[in-house]
Amino acid sequence: MSTLYSSFNAGIAGLNANSTRLAAISDNIANTGTLGYKRVVASFQSMVMGGSHYGPYIAGGVRASTIRLIDERGAITASANATDLAVSGRGFLPVTAQSALSRSGNLPLMLTTTGSFRPNADGLLENPAGLILLGWPADPDGSIPAFPRDTIGGLEPIRINSNQFASDPTTRINVRVNLPATGTRADSDGRSHDVALEYYSPLGTTDTLTMTFAPTVPATGQSNEWTATVTDPSTGNVIGDYTITFDDQPPNGGRILSVTTGGAGGAYDPLTGEFTVTTDSGQAIALNIGMLGDEDSITQMADSFIPVSTDRDGSPVQSLVGVQVDATGYVKAYYDSGLIRTIAQIPLVDVPNPNGLMALDNQAYRVAPESGAMFLWNAGDGPTGEINGFSREESATDVAAELTNMIQTQRAYSSNAKVIQTVDEMLQETANLKR
Description:
The protein is α+β, with helices and mostly antiparallel strands. It is 15% helix and 36% strand. It is built from two helices and 31 strands. Strands 5, 6, 10, 11, 12, 23, 24 and 25 form an eight-stranded antiparallel beta sheet that branches. Strands 13, 19, 20, 21 and 22 form a five-stranded mixed beta sheet that branches. A five-stranded antiparallel beta sheet has the order 14-15-16-17-18, with no helix packed on it. The protein is rod-shaped, with a radius of gyration of 38 Å. It starts with a helix and ends with a helix. The model has no long low-confidence stretch (mean pLDDT 91).
């Protein structure tokens, strides 16, 4: 009778196990259209009861367990939103719950492989499930400081201010003029020549420096020497003073032979053709006059002063027009003047065992003992993949395979139910024999 009763229990265990598998299949099919969903699979393990090889066999039945295949990735599809993100390969985007922002200390870290992020009312990149995207903030110059890789202390919510303005101050001006060779002769009138150098300040305003070229007139012959003086008109102070000597021999006739620094301004660098002056407001600007002996430089030829060009970098105040994330995770802000500025970097989180992560709602996960310790990688480095903007990861569910599994599960469930029915009939027969 013990063997018969064990068959009854094995049938019930079979029903329970196949119910678990059907629940996993139902979850997978229900989330066919869920972005970033990772399918769940059920596996069966047999249970063996102790006993002699020659005695009656005792059925142990079956036990079901489930695992979410987080390391499986769905297909990546294109979207029209620049901050729709998907990871192509290994790694997870760091996120946190919107409700956790009011807490003090480090934000609780959650992980996801994809998300449709858009600025919320506070400018934070948030997906429809309320998950806030985290990253390392950039310094004002666009560089990313060194942050620890095994903790989340440096991660902050990424903020996009649509009303943001930015200035792009001038850091470099190229000056190209031709000075009259006749100006440094003994019979010259010693006339100087001025060049206005317009530049953008850190406040986005337009200011001007004056660069004056004064010839050195000798008593006899020709000096081929000019004094270049840079003046800040706002104060009248001289902030740069240089003596420029030109070659008068072929093949470099008319080109710069030497540059010496006077009492103001930084030293001339012959490798770049630049010297740096600092305005009275503290703004450093590199003035490029050309390298020694280079034809693309200030020249001294003929008898006319010709201001060839004055090119500067920088731009006036500009408005933010968009944000994009590149493959390495750098969040770049684009302004209407063409300025591109890095405002943050999104690292990718990796763990030794992704399938050991704790699954949460909204396709999010949390580091668990079974997953191993996390590490923050630059996207595309180490074992991690790249971050795709304008992209979303589809569900990893294969509907055709799930429907096939459902049919198999249904057959197995019916067979276990038939076992229970058969055992019940046999027990009834046994009871009838005792009457």
